[in-house]
Amino acid sequence: MYNFLMTCILIVSVLIIIAVMMQPAKTNDALSALSGGADDLFAKQKPRGFEAFMQKVTVVLGVIFFALAMALVYLSSH
Description:
Radius of gyration: 17 Å
Keywords: Cell membrane, Membrane, Protein transport, Translocation, Transmembrane, Transmembrane helix, Transport
Strand content: under 5%
Helix content: over 70%
Distance between the termini: 12 Å
Structural class: mainly alpha
Number of helices: 3
Order of helices and strands: HHH
Function: Involved in protein export. Participates in an early event of protein translocation.
Organism: Levilactobacillus spicheri
Membrane topology: Multi-pass membrane protein
Protein name: Protein-export membrane protein SecG
Largest sheet: none
């Protein structure tokens, strides 16, 4: 069971990396990244389409990763 959960957590880890890399960039230039994007503070818009989908996928994969990590901790302590 431990080996199965370890394999699952490795697969989910790779999927999280892919999901994060596929998300579109939020900054337009290097100056915005250095200044913290203060000019866009009040220009926030709700993500739509592909960006919203990728955010949801990332959150779901994060929850699955956390649950698998807790299961591995439980199994390794008993």
